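Q: My collaborator sent me two sequences in one message, no labels, and asked for predicted structures for both. Can we handle them in order? The first one she listed is below.
A: Yes, handling them in the order given. First sequence, followed by its structure tokens:
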Amino acid sequence: MSRIVMIGGHGKVALLAAPLLVEAGHEVVSLIRNPDQADDVAAVGATPLVLSVEEADVAELARAFAGADAIVWSAGAGGKGGPERNDAVAIRSMEAAAVAGVRRYVMVSFLTAYGEVSVDHPLRAYAIAKIAADRHLQTTDLDWTILGPGLLTLEEPTGAITVARVLKGTPSSKAPTSRGNVARVIAAVLAEPASIGKVIPFYDGDTPVAQAVADVPQEYADLS
């Protein structure tokens, strides 16, 4: 059994991932900012821990991570709150993971988190911050995996995805991705050592999740 700490524990993806991880025999600790969310987290089998990752310093985060085997960043804020929510805060969590001795770190990012962000991007500051956090993660000594799902939907998960980049400028509607499938990918990469050091861009497709994450081209790790 592993102890997995999920950042953004009340998010839709995290609430779907937690029961999968618990079913696999893991202990899941979900960080939440609002204590009113604790019952929702507990209902899916995770242990809620009230801590604002925006306000916590490295030492406080490291204490929350103590004894963990993996960290999953699943905090998105839907682009709200400014770049600091997904750049400085995410980087601080990586530093805390290193202090706490937690090597495994899974970052949930987005499908086109590479290259330059167009000036007319609807969430440009958010996208730039996410890319900065992803690139910083690649420079650390952590055993990282970066997940890049496409447009998130509430469709029923199929358990099958396509791992591929999309051309810049491709409408996000062309790469719909069930949140349930994202949850399955999180669980799969935590069980798959071959996913370490990989960037995995994906959307709903035809390849079973476990198979897809075990055979990701190394060239996708280039975020330039």
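Q: And the one she listed second?
A: Here it is, processed independently of the first:
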Amino acid sequence: MEIFWRTIAYYNSATWLLQIVIILIGIALTGLLIGRPRPWVKMAMKFYMIGLYTWISVVYYYIYCEERSYNGVMAMFWGVMAIIWIWDAITGYTTFERTHKYDLLSYVLLAMPFIYPLVSLARGLSFPEMTSPVMPCSVVVFTIGLLLLFAQKVNMFLVLFLCHWEVGFDSAFMFKYSERPGTYAAKHL
């Protein structure tokens, strides 16, 4: 896990100002999408998601997580999800129409990226070696919250990719996987 936290610290210390800009744009677009869901706002949100997923692919995984042995695969995985958002922007598949069916859960999930840093602080971690709202887990939770809030018609291909990533990530922690030699699998085979 040392490599994991070291790469997070490297990422956060080098990009914190850009992360703040990304967060503020996301808050503004989400607020507009909820309050005034005009066609240009819906398209702007899709372009934001394309940029956000490309950021996670290139900046987070490919550049700052280069030290991790799986960074290339994860960069490709998130790049594919950015391409899915591009396809969605072209086809207009995700309509961003409110249903109000999952509002409570949606708002909880939209708040989670801001709770992750607080959990890091509660665990005794400090900046820059802590989770931030512009990291893969936070982006997945934000996206699921956004899609649930506007659940009338969503891109299920994207949802399947998100769930696949989230289940794989959670399984890594459930089975006590670490990046050090002597992982859970090596000890129990």
